[in-house]
Each structure stands twice: as structure tokens, then as C-alpha cells.
Amino acid sequence: MQLTGNDKTYLVTGGTRGIGRTMVLELARAGARVVTCYRRDAEAAATLSRELKAIGGTHHVTQADVGQPDDIARLVDDVAERFGRLDGIVSNAGQITHTPVEDLSFEQWSEVIATNLTGPFLLVQHSLRLMERGASIVLVGSRVAQAGLAGATAYTASKAGLAGLTRSLCKELGPRGIRVNVLAPGVIETEATAGMAAEKRHRYEQMAALRRLGSAEEVAHTALFLLSDLAGFITGETINVDGGV
After folding, report:
1. Is the pLDDT assigned to residue 19 strictly greater than 50?
2. Strands (DSSP E) along 97-187, which ranges?
3. How far apart are CA 124 and CA 86, in angstroms?
4. What is the sign, positive or negative, of the torsion defined by CA atoms of 233, 226, 75, 31?
5. CATH code of the domain made up of 9-241
């Protein structure tokens, strides 16, 4: 069995930065065709396109805001026109706001929920017409969904909601041979952690049994596993990649 292959097509949202970017590159290196999207950072999208071209294969980077229903529909239509099928999706795009609950506006709450929970739901809904038996859906959650995080109530609630969404989707889509799982990273080395204060970094490291932060590659490799036939009997689960928090 192979993790992926040159006959496979995957859609990864939020794939131009951080964990998503690493997922896209690892899928391309494994020989898959990859479509990904970005919200605003055109420069990151351009550098990713160049990296994908150097790897080789057929890939596509486009602009889409997964917090906007019309953008999701357009994104999946684009995949349908280019490739006509999907072997798996990784719903990775996300948004966070660090705001105390008493100061959290309804607009902030709604925007985070739209991107992190409604977006994945709509992505799955639109993508199903392109998916056949054996396809895999990976929703990127967060270890925070189980632990909680002060000042991030909307983010935590949205990521916790993915677990319930996944449990229901796995029951509904299981008879069709489509698997659905949540991938929940802990604190991972990305652009976002590069400027972290030493004291804060040490605190996060001590929270993990392995006493370190995770790498984007470690999360990406778990995503590739969940997308592959090697995880053929795993569905409805939340897989923590957190170093043993």
C-alpha cells in the first residue's frame, strides 16, 4: 500500500503557510496532485507555487476565503473542472482571536466560527460529489479543543465543534466508504512560534511529555497517514499530535 500516488488528487485549504504549507509539499513529494488556497498572502502563494513547480507534477494554488460560502463553492468547482475528482481533503485553514470573553464582539465570534467550523462543513458538503469509496477527509482541529485556552473562546469552541461534526459525518459517510477524522496538533514550530518569548516557549515545552515543540513535518506525516489506505479502518477519531500533553 502507498501513502499516496500519482493518480491521487487532494485539496488542502490554508496551504501556503505553516502546517498547511508543509502538508501540501509533502503530498506533492509523495506524487499526488494538490490543490490549495490562500486568503490574503499572495507572496506566500507565489513562493509555494515555485516550490511545487520544482518538485514536479500537476498542482494549483488559488485564492479563496473559506469563511465565505461562495469562495468554497468556487474552489471546489475549480477542482472539478481541473481534475474531476478528489481522493481526499484536508480542511486546514483557520482563524484565531485572542480576546477576553467580555470584550469578544459578535462579529469576531461569527468570523472565527465561519472560518473554523462552518467552512469545513461547507467544504465537505461541496466536495462529496467528487469523492468515491476510499476517499478520506481530515479536519485540522487543535489540542486546545480538549484543554481550553483563556482568551480564545471562539477558537476553542470552533475546534471542539469539529469533533462532533466528525462523529456524525463518519456515521453518515461510512456506508459510502468515506472516512472522516480530526487531526489535533499541539504547539508546533511554525512562523507563528518563531518569535515566541523564551519563557513562554519553555512553558509549552514542559507541557509535553517529549519536552519539545512538534514540527510541521510530524503533523503533515500524520495527515498523509490518515489520507492513505494505511488508515483504512480509522474513522470518526481525533488524533492528537501533541508530544504527550
Report:
1. yes
2. 136-140, 179-185
3. 11
4. negative
5. 3.40.50.720
